[in-house]
Amino acid sequence: MESIKENIDQVIWDYPNPFTVSIKVSNNEIDQLGHANNQVYLDWMMKAAYEHSESLGLSVHDYLSIGVAMVAKRHEINYLSGTFLNDNLIVGTWIATNDNRFRSMRKYQIIRMDDQKTILRAETDWVSLNIKNGKPQRMPDKFIRCYQPTIT
């Protein structure tokens, strides 16, 4: 049986070169209807976003030391199909836009590996905020460098 890693190369993504995170649906993510709860998809999206951010050189620790963070302002989630216990999923994410001032937008695609079906498409609008006062603050230079769009 091929590994998930080997199958990732065969996935048809909406955009090239996603940052990816592998997920295996666990029992505690299943709701009373027998499928993954809708809230869990958002958790998977945030996991991918934060891991991608860390891979670009910005961790939560960096946010705290700088005093500025990118925080989610709005999510738009299109649920296309359900997921079930032990499904193997790949979450792909891309930085779609960055105004180099206050806002950026990230896109997501979740694919179930067993049938290569896209089960979710989503996007999140992010805003640069001062952690202490909660007000918008211009992105530090490090944010601008790290959060350049990956979709061209």
UniProtKB/TrEMBL annotation:
Listed SUPFAM superfamilies: Thioesterase/thiol ester dehydrase-isomerase
GO molecular function, one term: fatty acyl-CoA hydrolase activity
InterPro entries: 4-hydroxybenzoyl-CoA_TE, HotDog_dom_sf
UniProt keyword annotations, A-Z: Hydrolase
CDD domains per UniProt: 4HBT
PANTHER family the record matches: 4-HYDROXYBENZOYL-COA THIOESTERASE FAMILY MEMBER, ACYL-COA THIOESTER HYDROLASE YBGC
Record's protein name: Thioesterase domain-containing protein
Naturally occurring in which organism (per UniProt): marine metagenome
